[in-house]
Specification:
This protein is α/β, with parallel strands linked by helices and 280 residues long. Helix content is 49%, strand content 14%. The protein is globular and about 60 Å long.
């Protein structure tokens, strides 16, 4: 049942990474609970069609565009489509992201590094640069960027991922102050969440899922917290036990926080971390 009390009611919202995981759940909540019109952005047409069918009677409030968010020209084309169709988006939620395989920095190829930075950081740069002039025309605009607990403190084996999310955190915090009073800007730093984020771990995917089941937050619960934060226009959201630990540890004892995490990872003896700590 729609909640007419919140500022989200009836808004037109763009959600990236909307075909699965948190993006899909966020889009669903916006549509069903806040009567929002959602434009989902993703690359899998099969998943988007399936999502549209799952919405049933709410499907009329959902449409989607298929494109790679890490390419600037795709955002420019999307903006043209928005304007040509007389669509007036109020909110942009940047949720798309990838977690590269756990490994030493020295083992990542330049292509691996570029891909992570393009999807996790530059896609947000492009979407905000292109869409902000349109979003700011709204009487009540909002931008929400989903980063990660890795933005607070880096874990061994996540150098590139942590760097991309830390860059996104810095960008979001600066834009928040630059647009204060004109636009709500929210930064979400979720801890590990039970989604398919570990799909890039190759043969170690099962090991990854088993390891992080111990600290991961169920997707539905994470989205509950994220939606609560957005409804209350929170500027900074650290959700999940591991995110709170990284947030506090990253501020109070950044070196010690990373060292303790590395010790735990080593002692777990999980195959997932073999390449991270193996002496070559």
């Amino acid at each position: 049942m729609a909640n007419k009390i919140t500022w989200l009611y009836g808004k037109t919202v763009i959600v990236t990474g909307a075909s699965s995981g948190m993006g899909k759940d966020i889009a669903t909540r916006l549509i069903k609970e806040h009567s929002c019109t959602v434009i989902g952005v993703a690359r899998s047409e099969a998943k988007m069609k399936a999502f549209n069918e799952e919405l049933g009677e709410y499907a009329k409030q959902f449409t989607y565009k298929l494109f790679d968010v890490s390419i600037l020209e795709n955002w420019q084309d999307f903006a043209k489509w928005i304007e040509e169709n007389n669509i007036h988006p109020d909110i942009l939620i940047n949720n798309a992201g990838i977690l590269p395989k756990f490994d030493k920095f020295e083992n990542y190829s330049i292509e691996d590094i570029r891909k992570a930075m393009d999807i996790n950081f530059f896609s947000n740069v492009y979407s905000m640069k292109v869409m902000m002039p349109i979003i700011l025309k709204s009487s009540d605009p909002g931008i929400v960027n989903v980063a990660s607990s890795a933005a607070f403190a880096s874990l061994a084996g996540t150098s590139v991922y942590s760097a991309s999310k830390a860059a996104l955190k810095g960008l979001t915090e600066a834009v928040r102050e630059e647009t204060r009073g004109r636009c709500y800007v929210g930064l979400v730093c979720p801890g590990f969440t039970k989604t398919d984020i570990f799909r890039n771990q190759g043969d170690d995917t099962a090991s990854a899922n088993k390891a992080f089941d111990l600290v991961s937050t169920p997707c539905a619960k994470m989205v509950d917290m994220i939606m609560h934060g957005i409804i209350h226009r929170k500027s900074r959201m650290a959700y999940g036990f591991d995110s709170k630990y990284m947030d506090i540890g990253g501020r109070m004892a950044p070196v010690g926080c990373s060292k303790i995490s590395s010790t735990v990872m080593k002692k777990s003896k999980l195959p997932l971390f073999d390449d991270v700590f193996k002496v070559q």
